[in-house]
TrEMBL record:
Catalytic activity: ATP + protein L-histidine = ADP + protein N-phospho-L-histidine
GO aspect biological process, one term: cellular response to phosphate starvation
Biological classification of the source: Bacteria, Pseudomonadati, Pseudomonadota, Alphaproteobacteria, Sphingomonadales
Keywords: Kinase, Membrane, Phosphoprotein, Transferase, Transmembrane, Transmembrane helix, Two-component regulatory system
GO cellular component, as recorded: plasma membrane
GO MF terms held by the record: phosphoprotein phosphatase activity; phosphorelay sensor kinase activity
EC number(s) per entry: 2.7.13.3
Protein name as annotated: histidine kinase
Residues covered by the Histidine kinase domain: 41-261
Amino acid sequence: TLDQHWEMHVSPAARGQRIVQLVDRTGNYAAERMRVDFVANASHELRTPLASILGYIETLGDDKAGEDAQVRGRFLKIMFDEARRMQRLVEDLISLSRIEAEKYRLPDRAVDVGALIGEVRSELLDAQDKRSSDIVADIDLSVPAVAGDRAQLSQVLHNLIGNAMKYGRAGTPVTVKLWRDPAGMVRISVTDEGEGIAPEHLPRLTERFYRVDPGRSRAAGGTGLGLAIVKHIIERHRGRFDVASVVGTGTTVTILLPAHGQTGTVIKR
Ligand code: ADP
């Protein structure tokens, strides 16, 4: 018996015999299923804040709420936050589709990752409001440039350091390390002292919209797409990505990237 994932092709052969081919379509069905789920999830994620914004607009227009300056201010703040959430989601969706469209073009610019870490560190510290996580950068200055796409590698660092700040314990530092391993690969690790991730969640973290704690992710402004974006960018760079975590202690995400050129381009400082 054939289940829905198998296709049978029958073609005539010599002496009245038939050639029967069984083709396994499991991969196609899985890809199609993922695409359908993705569109459904993305629409749902957009619908929720949109419904909330429309509800507040209606209330402001309908009753006396709109005349009370304090209430109006509060509603506007909520509407602004919901619109920002939609904007972040749309930006992440655009990033994902761009990265996918470029997936077969190997990025080849020499990128100074040490300098990039410094830049992203300042941007994230400046954007931080009341929470006071410091970002400690431990950079080996002799690390060669990597072959990459600067904007995409900046996005990787933003997402990983941003997660470490979001899910780290308030007041504890985030540590970013850059070094070259004995095999000549460039390694970057981001470590936080947060609550960690239970082992059963680790294999699913890079799935689109997969969240360990959806309430916490949303409250922190997460889209659920950050690590999916990281995975795609690292794959495009022919690199590797690994998450190690201990519940109650913290998480370390490590990425490995090939150095630029065979021997590595030395960065002039
Ligand atoms: P989000 O926008 O929800 O942060 P991500 O794709 O960046 O989405 O991460 C997926 C999920 O992985 C998060 O919702 C969170 O549950 C978990 N996660 C990611 N980074 C960390 C971390 N440093 N510590 C604990 N949990 C994390």
